[in-house]
Amino acid sequence: MRTYVHDKEFLDESNFAERTKLLLRCTCDYLVSKGHDEEEAMVVAEKAFELAVESAKTKKSDKKIGIDKDKKTKYLLYLAKENMDLFAQICHEQWDLLSMIIKPSKGSDKKALKQNEKKLGLALAILFDGKKAVDLALFGRMLADLADKNVEASCQVAHAISTNTVKMEMDFYTAVDDLNTREDTGAGMMGVVEFNSACFYRYLVIDTRKLVQNLDGDAELASRGLRAFLRAAILAIPTGKQNSMAALTPPSYVQSIVRDGGEPWNLANAFISPVQSGEKGGEDLVNNSIKVLEKQLKSLKTMYGENGKKAFFILGPRSETNLDALLDGVLAAVWS
Question: What span, in angstroms and rounded, lies between the C-alpha atoms of 84 and 96?
Fold first, then answer.
């Protein structure tokens, strides 16, 4: 879902985050593009990162984020693209000061240099802001060494589960060498690939209040981001093995509930007993799964009431709406 929104350009580039260990390399490349020596640029980038981390600390127990011998951070950092760009830009604009901090000249005012170093560190700490990155606001971030820079996710995504019993199939394949001579009739390679086909139930929930909070109160950006990620939640399909399986099937049924309070409901218990296809002439696996899902929702309503339900939308075989109309309805209900 995260990369689908990015690839389809549903949002501006500045509203995304990057998950990477290569921050220093990216910063170094930017500095080199501005005419700086590559070796010196890496030293400056590393020092700038050290100052940013030091300034971002709010607790004595916070550790320095480790850098390995290849100049990569020791774990993936989830950083807003806009803030990564600003960090690199500051490194370029403050090149002379950073060089002076790394190697002070003789006779330099140490006290003034220390004060400038502290101010620069506070500016560089913008790296860990991320308040305009929608994917970061949705999926959250944990920085083990800077706990106060963690972002609590506003979105929770459950593993997809099959509604039916799944049986593993085996695809025995052979490949012929195109340049074989006519006499060489053997296969160039052979093997077995396991695969299956199932009807899947997927579930996610988004706390829109938390989303707005994570985006520093920007409700307009939250609205655009919510539409983009809801579309991705419906349309995004895993890319693995697509060339050999062409598993490009969109969902047959989408159910969206907007709640103003109450607790979200995952309807996975609908499939405690595997759904079966009907007898000859009966309902198919997909339609039977829809029926069981709706029955589970009805059962929960009977037990707990409407549970803060504000609006309910369906996209599927018995609805007369389309995807854009569904998204329009959900967004209108969320912000009303």
Answer: 20
> Could you give the CA distance from residue 307 to residue 7 in angstroms, rounded to a whole number?
37
Length of the chain, please? 336
Distance CA 189, CA 181 (A): 16
Provide the terminal-to-terminal Cα distance of the chain, rounded to the nearest Å: 26
Concatenate the DSSP letters of all residues of 141-194 into one string: B--TT-GGG-B--SEEEPPPEESS----EEEEEEE--TT--TT--S-SEEEEEE
CA distance 316 to 311: 17
Chain centroid, CA 282 distance in Å: 40
Kindly compute the dihedral angle of the four CA atoms of residues 296, 211, 327, 198, in this order, to the nearest 10 degrees: -50
* Per-residue model confidence as pLDDT tens digits over 136-158: 999 999 998 898 899 999 999 99
Q: How far apart, in whole angstroms, are the C-alpha atoms of residue 277 and residue 156?
A: 31
Q: Tell me the C-alpha distance between 117 and 27, whole Å.
A: 19
Reading the block at residue 111, the tokens are 């006290």
Rounded CA-CA distance 84/73 in Å is 14
Residue 233: count other Cβ atoms within 10 Å of its Cβ: 20
Angle at 178 between CA 175 and CA 182, to 5 degrees: 105
Secondary structure element (H or E) that encloses residue 46, with its range: helix 38-56
DSSP summary character for residue 131: T
Q: Would you state the structure tokens that stand for residue 246, as one six-digit string?
A: 């062409």
What CA–CA distance (Å, rounded) separates 113 from 115?
5
Q: What's the one-letter identity of residue 199?
A: C
Bridge partners (DSSP) listed for residue 303:
none
Q: For the segment 201-252, what is each residue's pLDDT rounded down to a tens digit?
A: 999 999 999 999 999 999 999 999 999 999 999 999 988 889 988 999 999 9
